[in-house]
Amino acid sequence: MAFAQFERPKPPRPMSDINITPLVDVMLVLVVILIMTAPLLASSLKLALPKTNAATPVAPAQSAQSPPLVLSLDAQGVLYLNQQVIDEGALALQLTQAAQQDPDAELRLRADAAVPYGRVVSVLGLAQKAGLSRIGFVAEPDKAGATPSKIH
Asked: Burial of 128 by CB count in 10 Å (0-12 exposed, 13-18 middle, 19+ buried)?
């Protein structure tokens, strides 16, 4: 007596394709995070800039040869040239080199409102002694529109 054999169904084959949907989702989230944080990285040095109702947005540099130098002075009196800590001796050397390379080089001074006036003047003296004549002061616009108080 012969028994008939029924054909067994083959087990499903393992899936060999990579599902990239979760990968795309993660990458899109990372791109959104990058887009949100990029403006915050542009100026990582936090200063309480003086406010004035005469402040206007900074125009692009007129000199096509070199971008403007950004000199920052925080509340503790620490100097930063283009976001990097620098001492006065090295600053004088850097400013002299910049003035020699481009006589029309622009220096933008970002000084915290808490910095004493004498410290700001000494930094301006370094810049003028180095040969820079185009010096701009960076301030924040006064959103309240208040008029400046009387000077005594």
From this structure: middle
Prediction pTM value: 0.58
pLDDT digits (tens, 9 = 90+) for 81-97: 988 899 989 999 999 99
Query: What does the alpha-carbon distance between residue 78 and residue 86 come to, in Å, rounded to a whole number?
Result: 8
Name residues whose C-beta falls within 8 Å of residue 36's C-beta, 6 or more positions apart in sequence: none
pLDDT digits (tens, 9 = 90+) for 42-61: 656 677 677 777 656 655 55
One DSSP character per residue, 1-61 reads --PPPPPPPPPPPPP-S---HHHHHHHHHHHHHHHHHHHHHHT-S-----EETT--PPPPP
Residue 83, token pair as written in the block = 């976001």
Q: Which structural domains are found in the chain, ordered by start? A: 51-141 (3.30.420.270)
- Quote the mean pLDDT of the chain: 80
d(CA 3, CA 136): 100
46, amino acid identity: K
> pLDDT value at position 19?
85
Q: Which of 89, 51, 96, 48 shows the shortest CA–CA distance to 72?
A: 48
Q: How many residues does the chain have?
A: 152
